[in-house]
Amino acid sequence: MAAHPNGNGHDPRHAETAAALASDRLPPQNLEAEQGVIGGILLDNDVLHDVALILRPEDFYRDSHQILFKAIRDLYDLGKPIDAIILSEELKRRGEYEAIGGDETLGLILNSVPHAANTKYHAGIVREKSIGRQILEGANEIVREVYSNNLTGDELLEGAERRIFAIAEDKGVWRNR
Q1: What are 139-149's pLDDT values in tens digits?
Q2: Which one of 8, 15, 42, 84 has the lowest number of neighbouring Cβ atoms within 10 Å?
Q3: What kind of fold does domain 28-177 have according to CATH?
Q4: What is the pLDDT of residues 6-60, one digit of tens each?
Q5: In this structure, what is the dihedral angle of CA atoms 22, 24, 27, 33, given to the nearest 10 degrees?
Q6: In the chain, which residue ranges form alpha helices assigned H by DSSP?
Q7: Domain limits, the chain
Q8: Which pLDDT score is estimated for 22?
Q9: pLDDT in tens, 65-79
Q10: Mean model confidence pLDDT for the chain
Q11: Under 8 Å CB-to-CB from 106, ≥6 apart: which residues?
C-alpha cells in the first residue's frame, strides 16, 4: 500500500475532492417545470387528473411548490375547483400563504405558463428530477455507511440494493397508476 500524506492509509485529498465536487452542484431539479405543472393546473383543472397519477408533493424540489401542490391535491381530493383565487384562499386558511411567497409567487407562476398543453410533460420532468434526488440521497446514505466502518461487505451490499430497489419499486408504482 502506498504511503498517504496523513500516514493512516487514507488520502484526505480524495475526501476533499469529493466534497468540492458535491458542494458546487445543486441536486437534480427543474424549477421551470415545477412552475409549469402548478401553472398548468391553475389554467386547466382537467390536467390534474393525469398529473395526480405522476406526482406527489415531495417530488417538487422547491418547498413553496410542495406546499402549493399539496394544497392543490387536497382541493382536488375534496372535489373543489382550483384557480388562483381559490388556491390563495386555501393557503391563507392554512396559514401558508406567506410561506409560499404570496401574490408574488402565484403571479410569477401564472405569468410563466401560457397554456396547460404541456403540463403532463412537465410533470414527467419533475418526477424524473425527484428520482435523481432520491438516488443521490440513497447514495449519500450508502457512502456514510461505508465510512462508518461498522458493516460487513454483505451488509453494505444489502443496504445499497434495498435503497435502490425501493426507488425503482416506487417509480413503478407511480408509473402504473
Answers
A1: 999 999 999 99
A2: 8
A3: DNAb Helicase; Chain A (1.10.860)
A4: 444 555 445 554 554 555 689 999 999 999 999 999 999 999 999 999 999 999 9
A5: -160
A6: 12-23, 31-43, 48-54, 63-77, 84-94, 102-112, 119-148, 153-175
A7: 28-177
A8: 57
A9: 999 999 999 999 999
A10: 88
A11: 84, 87, 88, 100
CB neighbour burial string for 97-110, b if at least 16 within 10 angstroms, e if fewer:
beebbeeebbeebe
Closest CA to 166 of 143, 146, 137: 137
Predicted confidence at residue 145, as pLDDT, reads 95
Q: C-alpha distances in angstroms, 55 versus 4, 32, 62, 94, 105?
A: 48, 15, 14, 22, 20
The number of beta carbons lying within 10 Å of the beta carbon of residue 34 is 26
> What CA–CA distance (Å, rounded) separates 59 from 131?
8
User: Which residue reads 404541456 in cell numbers?
Assistant: 118
| Contact status, residue 59 vs residue 126, Cβ threshold 8 Å | yes
Written as one string, the DSSP assignment of 130-165 is HHHHHHHHHHHHHHHHHHHT-S-HHHHHHHHHHHHH
